[in-house]
Write a structure and sequence with these properties.
about 240 residues, mainly alpha, 10 helices, about 80% helix, globular
Length: about 240
């Protein structure tokens, strides 16, 4: 039951973020959007380091090879996904599809770390698995809002915009459950899988979030968000891990 709840936490974060459409104006203020994007970036960077790369390094038996190779493959995988989804941002209905594909590595990350916990892997406890799930949920909150609010602004009803936001996060628990169901196959390559998820998450930060933070006029809101997000996730992981 603990594992099931942990897997669902990121999806809950996306759903709560999508609820913002019922309480806010049609469009997020630029400063708030930059702060939320920065916060999500900080959380993902810290989660990639403390929850994914460090455990991968601790459990590998081939030095830097698996973590480095997995990290690179995660970057290349998201590069491929971006080529597939290129231009979908122009179509609000396809935006959900693009974000859903980007959420897949996050679902895998949660599934992999809970699989590592279930198999008693070094450096992975239930608390540290929950820390990653909570961290991803925190960064999913603004993501849900950033999807649902533009949908409403483009003419969709609030309910439809909310549903689209929720749907963008469905792939995460599905990906996590599938990963755990394949635990016996995943265990031998856990260091690679954890590093793969870290690479994919860092790609999203560098390619998707940071350019949005620095678009239009520059201000300190995004940087403050990054710092706070990083600190929150770092404290969560160190305290719970």
């Amino acid at each position: 039951m603990d594992v099931v709840l942990g897997i669902l936490i990121p999806f809950i974060g996306t759903s709560l973020g999508s609820c913002i459409v019922f309480f806010m104006k049609d469009k997020i203020q630029s400063n708030l959007e930059k702060f939320l994007l920065g916060f999500a970036s900080g959380v993902m960077i810290a989660a990639s380091i403390w929850s994914l790369l460090i455990p991968a390094i601790e459990m590998t038996n081939n030095g830097w090879v698996s973590p480095a190779f997995g990290f690179l493959m995660g970057i290349l995988f998201l590069t491929f996904i971006d080529k597939i989804t290129n231009g979908y941002e122009e179509d609000k209905s396809m935006l959900v599809f693009a974000v859903t594909l980007h959420n897949l590595p996050e679902g895998m990350a949660v599934g992999v770390i809970f699989a590592a916990f279930l198999t008693g892997s070094v450096g992975v406890t239930l608390a540290s698995a929950y820390a990653l799930a909570i961290g991803i949920a925190i960064q999913n909150f603004p993501e849900g809002a950033i999807i649902s609010l533009p949908m409403k602004a483009s003419g969709s009803s609030k309910l439809k915009a909310f549903i689209y936001g929720v749907l963008s996060g469905v792939v995460e628990p599905i990906g996590a459950f599938l990963t755990i169901s394949l635990t016996k196959f995943v265990v031998p390559i856990l260091p690679f899988m954890l590093s793969f998820a870290a690479g994919a998450m860092i790609y999203v930060v560098v390619e998707e979030l940071v350019p949005e933070i620095n678009s239009k006029e520059k201000n300190a809101k995004g940087i403050i968000g990054v710092a706070l997000g990083f600190i929150v996730m770092m404290v969560l992981d160190i305290t719970l891990g």
